[in-house]
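User: Assemble these into one structure.

Assistant: Restating your components, then the assembled model:
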Amino acid sequence: MRKYFALIAITCLTSSLFVGCSGEEKVSSNGVTEITIPHYKVGQNVGAKFFVPQVERFNTLHADKYKINIEELPQDGYNDKIKQLAQQNKLPALVEAGDTDWINSYIIPNKKYYDLSDFISSNEHISNVVIEESLQYNTQEDGSVSTFPRTSSRPIGLFYNSTLYTPEKPIRDMSVDEFVQSLGDNKLAFITGENAWTTMLFYTSLIANEEGGVELLNSGAKDKITDFNNDIFINATTKLQEIAMSNGSSNMLGAAYADAANSFMSKNSAIIFNGSWMGSDFEQGSEDKWSNGFDGTQVVSDIYPGNVAIDTIQAIGWWIPDGLPEDELEVALAFLEFINTPEELEAYVLQEGGVLPNLEMSEAFKEKQKERVLINQLNSSVTSETHIVPTFEYIVHNSISQEEFGKLLPKLFDGSITPEEFCATLTEKAQSIE
Amino acid sequence: MSKNRNLKWIYLFLAPSIIIFAMFYLVPIITLFSTSLTKWDGFNEPKFIGLDNYIKLFTQDSFLISLKNLAYWGIIAGTLHVGFAVLIAFLLHKKPFGWKFVRSVYMIPNIISVAAWAMIYRFFFNNDFGILNNLIRKLNPDFNVNWFFESPFAFWAITLTWLFYGVIVTLIVFNELMSISPDIHEAAKIDGANEWQITTKINLPLCKNAIATGIILSITSRIAMYETIALTTRGGPGDDTMNIPIILVNAINDMNYGYANASAVMMFLFGIMVLVIINKLFGINKEH
């Protein structure tokens, strides 16, 4: 008897080790296939305003068949989360972009993606709207399409508060020096925390304003830049340092995006560098974000000095991992199809700005777009003469843009390192990744 | 025969612990050591590259700075941090007025998650609205320091986030003090010893093992310190507050698992080194 008791005790002890080690369960009830995708466009994230209702619209439209749940993530944790899920072989059915380095070095060479070429070519309304340059970028040597190409072009520029800063002419038509002179004592909402987004945008424009800078930026989208010890970067860094020292917002050291936005929307900064999606923060309904007499109607948008706008057409978009169960793949493809319907594309551009070069816009859209003053300003600032360049983020390795750039900025801005040292350190860090 | 039958049962009952040890410690440690000698992106097959990851580690500024930081933090942890915690334990042992309240308050940082604590410190050290700078500005209105984002303040700001929170060490030492027989203290008093002599000649030597354990725990915590740095300075400005766990996580994010594991091996070796050195210095477990 004692022997049996002991054996049972040992079995229980050993089996208890494996409790909780069961596989992931796919929820499916009443014929509805549910998938859960991690995403950062939730909560206070600026992209949530469009993305969350869009997913709800999809769920409502396909209420009898599909449901997409969103697992909330902070934006700067998204890429890492996707990589961790990939390691566990638990990638969600839909992924929006992610770490470009990782996708180029692992997902694409190992063909871990679902080939979207048939999906795009068999849906006429989709193949008609994708931008050809972006489709080519996302098409691999074997003809497969790894990630969904861009359908819209969204120029990233800047917003300024016209009650604080009144340029004599459009910023687009100024040189960098003229722009700096026009600033006076006005402050720029820089960031050094997170990935230093607003600072990175302005830095990109400074690079583009250097001789050969536009070409350098455009060449870096495919072949990552690891050597910053050249005149283009050193000159751009020197200008960034000078401008930050004279016109950087008081909270720029350690500031995250929310701090920069708060600085701008409380009139502590006159200018913030960001994309058209921020326009909704300056419209009615966002008054709770404003303080200190700030009024969204005072905001004007423009592009960067030297007629530079930032947009990355050669970018990765939504993708689907390979090897998904048939029903999950069906939901994922249905979602991609849904978000690329003319109605959804128009709604997207209305909310977040940009242009859809390959879509004939409806009259209703044109009427509504007239109300989006800021977005129209930004779109109309871009002409055929405008230099459109990708962000610095796209031309360097992920850890350089997401970690090292932001971490070095405080030292550059407080003068403890020179622009040459800044570029040398970035070079050392970038080359150590190779 | 009976002894052999007992051995069988002993091993059977030990089996769950051995399985746990093998699954969660032994196998990962072996994997860690072996993959640290490879170039591995975490997805494809690891490729043997010998000591390249270690050579790269020891020739990179960020690792050398993190070694320097670890040395400073280790010294501060082993002296000031443990010293303060021991002092609190000795004070609490005297049971002065309000000692229970003080003990509870002293425990609070330990029941708040490190992540929340890091965020509290971000606000505490904020230049614009942080309590610290606003207090300093009462004396010096022009004072402007971004503690977490300026050299050399960032190192000290990080240090201050843990320097005075040694509650684990305090509890270990306090329990050791409580276990000292009152007879010893009484005998000492009869022999004419004063409070200071009782503390320094009796209590302190009898708490030697507890203090040594506290030093080991404190220094190894510095080796593994991640959350506070990741949520405040991320190792910056530049590499001022860099440490090995940050290097490890960055390497993982760069899909450089061989390099990440080489840094993990170094953490492992430093931990063992601390254990051996403190053991030797304090003669832990030696019979007196």
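Chain A touches chain B through 42 residues (CB under 8 Å).
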